[in-house]
Known about the structure:
Blueprint: H1 2-8, H2 10-14, H3 16-19, E1 42-44, E2 47-50, E3 62-63, E4 66-75, E5 84-89, E6 94-99, E7 103-112, E8 115-126, H4 138-141, E9 143-149, E10 154-159, E11 164-168, E12 185-187, E13 201-206, E14 212-219, E15 225-230, E16 240-245, E17 252-258, E18 263-272, E19 275-284, H5 286-289, E20 297-304, E21 312-320, E22 323-330, E23 340-347
Antiparallel strand pairs: 1-8, 2-4, 3-4, 4-23, 5-6, 6-7, 7-8, 9-10, 10-11, 11-12, 13-14, 14-15, 15-16, 17-18, 18-19, 19-20, 21-22, 22-23
Amino acid sequence: MKILKFLASARGLLMGAALLLLLxxxxxxxSSNASAAADAVQPIRLTxxxxxxxxxxxxxxxxxxxxxxxxxxxxxxxxxxGGISGLQTDGRGQFLAVTDTGNWLAFRSIERGGRLVGLxxxxxxxxxxxxxxxxIEKADADAESLAWDPATGAVTIGFEQDHRLMHYAGIDxxxxxxxxxxxxxTERWAGMVDWPRNGGAESLAVLPGGAxxxxxxxxxxxxxxxxxxxxxxxxxxxEIRRLGIPGLPEHRPTDAVxxxxxxxxxxxxxxxxxxxxxxxxxxxxxxxLAGGTHVPSTELARWEAPVTLDNMEGLAIARSGDRVFLYIxxxxxxxxxxxxxxxxxxxxxxx
Length: 351
């Protein structure tokens, strides 16, 4: 999806012919199975290949504040596998993801000695709207971000193109039949109306107190990124304010997750003539939650090849005591020249 905007730029046109090979599959209509409902909840087989952090330096174990704890490349012969754009975990090895072709994907991690070595138990199903229908057109199915409360099963999914938030109740990937549930509500925030078609709710974070942060992918004139903050903690209630979220040079935010009651981790992705890159920042919403507009930001990590990466789009957080672990997944755009990669890190914040 995002590569289309790159091709539209002046520099992108110079390499347009070559980059056409990287365009995601299925920009128009989705597969004929898109209108299926409950009976479309299907197990799929995954194969995984372990990857090093740095193929040229086997001894590298850290990127900035991130300590490497394993990575795998994921493949499947299942039709339409890939396009993962949002990721969450219950912290006990169960993961819930959404794809930008309008599907749920659930799976479990396989870990040995605290290191990620594989995935298993994958199940997929189409996202259903409030009428119990799956999207037929790509423009209606472009799920880009995900927030999930494993304790209650409440899920919020952010979409772009048709900018909106869709809410689900009782979603439990350990009970795959719940993935066939219809959305309970659709929200359309006025502040999203003028967002670019392919620059919508790319990142979504729900803080412990219920405040919701949605970050647009496209940069604003000052190099930051437009964001909307609903501090009410209630769906459909409270004032939604515009903020500017600091970015990373040449990067765009692709996912976000709350670290605590005021701080949010933001994943960033680069795709330009210099190639792919990824980064992680920590933003502090305390001033904004108190009514201000300033959002302090700290860069935690930035990496590019030969360090393992692809089109990094999903970020999930897990905790064990005082330790914090992050899982990052790439969106392969359903393209054979790209890869679905899942990486695990421990977050080691500066003291």
